[in-house]
Amino acid sequence: MQHGIDAERFGPQGDAMAHQVKTCVHCGFCLPACPTYKDLGQEMDSPRGRILLMKEMLEGSLEMEEGLPYVDKCLGCMACVTACPSGVEYGELLTPFRALARDRVKGTLLDRLTRLSFRLLLPFPRRFRAAAYLGRLARPFTGMLPDQMASMLELLPQTLPASRPLPSVYPAQGRRRARVALLSGCVQQVLSPAINWATLRVLARNGVEVLVPASQGCCGALALHNGDADQARDLAARNFDALPTDVDAVITNAAGCGSGIKEYPLLFRGDGLEEEACRFSARVQDVSVFLDELGLEPDPPSLPAAMKVAYHDACHLAHAQGIRSAPRKLLERIPNLTLMELMDGETCCGSAGTYNLEQPEIANRLGANKAAVIARLQPDAVAAGNVGCLMQIESHLKRRNSRLPVLHTVELLDRAYESA
Amino acid sequence: MRSLGALNSIFPPERVLSGPAQVAPYESDALTAFRERPLAVVLAESQDEVIETVRLCQRENLPFVARGSGTSLSGGSLPIREGIIIGLNRLNRVLELDPAERCAVVEPGVINLDLSALGAPHGLYYAPDPSSQSICTIGGNVAFNSGGAHCLRHGMTSNHVLGLKAVLPDGAVVELGSKSLEGVGPDLTGFFVGSEGLFGIALEITVRLIPKPESYKTILAAYSSLEAAGDAVTQVVATGLLPGAMEIMDHLAIEAAEAAVHAGYPLAATALLIVELEGEAAEVEAEFQLLEPVIQASGAFEIRVARDEGERLRIWKGRKSAFSAVGRLSPDYIVQDGVVPRKQLGASLAEIEMLGRKHGVRVANVFHAGDGNLHPLILFDGTEAGALEKAEELAGDILQMCIRRGGSITGEHGVGMEKREYLAHMFAPTDMEVMKRLRRSIDPLEIANRRKMFPDENGHGQVTPPMIVRSGDGAGTTLRPGSFREVQQAVADHARIRPRGGGTKPALSQAPDGVASLDLTGLSGIVEYEPEEYTFTALAGTPVAEIQERLAQEGQYLPFDPVLVRAGATLGGTVAAGTGGSGRYRYGGIRDFLLGIRFVSGRAEMVRGGSRVVKNAAGFDLPKLMVGSLGRLGVLVEMTFKVFPLAQRWLTLEASLPDLSQALDAIRRLRAAPLDLGAVDLEPPGRLLVRVGGRSESVGARLDRVRELVGQGVELQGKEEQAHWDGVREFDWVPADWNLMKVPTTTGTIADLEESLGSVPHRTRYSAGGSLAWLAWSGPLDPVDRALAHLDHTGLVVRGHGDVARAGRTQDQVFSTRIREALDPDGRFSEE
Fold first, then answer.
1. B734: DSSP letter
2. Sequence-separated (6 or more) residues with CB below 8 Å from residue A289
3. What CA–CA distance (Å, rounded) separates B10 from B14?
4. Rounded Cα distance, A409 and A16, in Å
């Protein structure tokens, strides 16, 4: 598509944004893949519509205040990237654009407060834990709060799981086949610490020694996807030093972190740390891909009872990183586990980082749709590779009075190994 | 903005988009070379909202553009600056799914691919498959008569739309067609389809769903030259096979598509041919045995057959992503859609290459080789000075080439914005004038999709002045013109005139008192026959028998199965009466095989519509309008038809079931199965005749399957079999002095019709799987008329009493009146 964007005006990311606009041919093949277009049914809420709006805003022919609300409605799920035949890397337009827009548009006081709270709380497990505790106390007042705040509270679990610090080294069992560092994450540590423990045990069982440096912090993905590029760079840079380089891989078990880290090269383009960012980014692997490439050994034993498991493709695994087969292959290695495919499986569940907090209405409809599809399929459990999806799905299943277990892929592997 | 304010009385505020960020994303469809922002976009969620909006537009003289998903490649849904967009993507309810009648009634916003999903639980699917089928809407498909890779065997959108409810640009709501495959009177549904939004907005669409083929064989053959791939197509056609699809992609397209979807295409290929066979498993296997050696011998350096459905779908996904994937090679491109006669494919591709070099522009090629439908993708970078102009020049040269070679400027994308300057190159000034008159008659203010299809100013040539009309009434005279000019003169000379062919359907062709009779048998002969193109052109008075004989020499036939052939029916009379026969069950009726026409209008103009190639979407579909028009809209003088290869062998199962209800059950079972049947006829109460045609080695087994489903029956073959169907065609079963009527039906209404005919002495034969009843009766018309009206059926008397040609329910008078006013304003052909 033709454009008149003066790429140089927009810093090192300007070229990337202009290139993506140029690559879009406006064919509309992205429309059926886009959850917000399917939900809202208007061009402004479609990928090609947003590309056009971002183009207009970058060209300066459309005011940011006019176009930004539609860009804000984007989940960033990247389903459009999977669907796009002409190869638009939509994320390379969206992420820098959001950063640019944040600098220029103030938004409402509530928006700013919400974003400030994300900025100050989410990346820091201790602060977040304290806030989440307070939030639970505030739950009786949910009805009196604005939607965004209310949905934050609704997503908090009934009780916060106990916090047990992770060891700095978790030794391999048997012959050591590999040595990795684990990116322990931020939000997940507070809301679902069991995932990291399961990851440690499964890796160890497969002969992998895991280092968990205490000095590491949030990878910055949430900040990055919220348009806070500065904070994202600060957080990322801290991890360049904190995580060792003499390991076979840096492992993440959160799709959002993985996909954010894959965006470091663009984030740091033109920055003094660019090379380091590229090297770091290349070292990071999702736990499912790492285990699949390493090969499970020993074979996972059967679960205590046979299980039909519906696998949900986290957008940031499937669309953003193209990871679809590795988690499925791992799960299928469990002898009495039957994998089930969800109808419309590649459609976002509405979690999308902090989206369910910022656009609760759309997120709720997507969550409800996903829960309905799952309920129709009647599995014994749901598996996914991202904590946000797990919480969103669990929360919407609960609204249907379903107590179906919603687990991370490694948690199921862990259950199999632990049952032996 | 008084009118915009009025929109707020129809829509809630959130569905009237007028802010800059709201209208900007609607500025283009899939052709971004054109951009225009509308005053507003309204998102309709009910039919009433659309009707009220159109009426408002009419009152306020506010132009509107209907838009589905905005995937037009010809700029068909480009907004108009001084008007509004009526967004129809949310008007997407499925109103009815009728698996027994194999159809569905849907609103225009339903997505093409969702129709197939809808039919899937019943083993049915929607055949037209534009590459954008995952998102394009059926409303847009109807407006632009969209095609797809599988047009070769299945035809385009118009071949799969049975009926429509539409709001005309002046706010009148009309209902056209029905659930039956057949109709009475001009094919208004077919005429509406492909009118590019100029005739208004379809609100309800009755689409045909057909059984999903039981088996596919998808062959991928790699060649080191485009010419070799093109020659392979010619060789496949020469075998007499009718594949579901035959597609070619050149190197650039292969590269782009492979990068987009990883279809597994051989990247070393300069050209890739995809041939897909489909149908009953036994038939596909037999066809494959014939096809494989042909492909082997065609010089392909690699041949692959899809091993499973997954691989087949990947092959098609690659092909269908090719246009957009070319975005990887070039930031801008123009997709062309010209058609050339199939045998000129090689020469046309060479010419395109030469033209590309001349203009210094890269061209990628993806095309429907079986249809001769080219899709050159002209690649350019709009940021380079003069690049767009060069690309447009090349595009123009390619269109001129298609016209020069006897083809069309558009096979399936429509004229839209993009090709409107070229429509007048394909059609003569008079043809253009008549099409514009039709448009103005239906939309006097030109508010519906203004600026599309027709160029803004008609600077092209002179309209031939109409004949001097003389006053003589010519009552009682019979004229037998020997030339087109004489036909024009005869029409000009007579205030009332009625055309006549072989006179085999006297109720339709006999001139009443005071009306001159125009005998067309003097205009006889085949003008052109191109067996390898599957087309022929003949004069209106040519006896059908002569045509069939000539086609048979080349192993081809008229799949709509004309009737009264031995009796002397002419081609023109057959089209005007709309009388196809039992065999139309397999591939379609007259409407589905008539490609082009020439006719003399009521103003004595010589008008051409359609084209001489198998695929064409340029201009209004005048050929369809003439099917069943009974000579009341114009005098047909010449026609071009599509033909198909003849089956190698025919077999018929004759079964005698105990009663009507068991016979109908058997028909339902047959219709629900993935069978490719030649004819399914019922003679009440229980005599069933089912015909199967195909490769000699497989028809026997296929007939056994039919017998299994029917539960009994004896096999007819050879001369006996032929004689049976000849007798059906010639109405040997109708007593000589009885009346005969054609009644479009559906399987579900047969029992009711039989019952309500009760005491009338009659014989019926239900043809084409229950879509077409031939009703012979003795005595007056009245009781039959009442019975039909009671069941909401319409009948066409072909042999019978006096002046009444139609019986039963009265059909649309609004749309047809406007059309008649444009074509025959003085009522020369009128029935009154």
1. S
2. A323, A326
3. 12
4. 34
Q: Which residues pair with B408 in a beta bridge?
A: B339
Q: How far B616 CA sits from the closest chain A CA (Å)?
A: 23
> Which residues touch B105 (CB under 8 Å, ≥6 apart)?
B94, B95, B96, B98, B163, B204, B205, B206, B207
Q: What is the pLDDT of residue A115?
A: 72
Q: A261 and chain B: CB distance < 8 Å anywhere?
A: no
Q: What is the pLDDT of residues B731-771, one digit of tens each?
A: 999 998 999 999 999 999 999 999 999 889 999 999 999 99
Q: Residues B271, B225: contact at Cβ < 8 Å?
A: yes
Rounded to two decimals, the ipTM of the complex is 0.94
Q: Are A196 and A166 in contact (CB under 8 A)?
A: yes
Chain A residues whose beta carbon lies within 8 Å of the beta carbon of residue B134: 29, 32
Q: What is the mean pLDDT of residues A168-184?
A: 96
- The pLDDT tens digits for B673-709 are 999 999 999 999 999 999 999 999 999 999 999 999 9
**Alpha helices per DSSP H over B583-642:** 584-587, 590-593, 622-626
Work out the percent of chain B whose per-residue pLDDT is above 90: 88
Distance from C-alpha of A135 to C-alpha of B243, rounded to nearest angstrom = 66
What's the pLDDT at B470? 57
Give the whole-angstrom CA distance, residue A33 versus residue A344. 9
> Which of A1, A28, A87 lies closest to B260 in CB terms?
A87
3-state SS class at A30: coil
d(C-alpha B799, C-alpha B467), whole Å: 34
| Per-residue DSSP letter, B541 | T
- Residue that the structure tokens 């900025």 belong to: A119
**Chain B closest-CA separation from residue A73 CA (Å):** 14
Q: For residue A63, what are the CA distances in angstroms to A105, A109, A348, B442, B692?
A: 10, 20, 29, 42, 66
CA distances from B210 to A214, B202, B582 (A): 64, 22, 18
Residue B542 and residue B148 in contact, taking contact as beta carbons nearer than 8 Å: no
Region B592-618 average pLDDT:
95
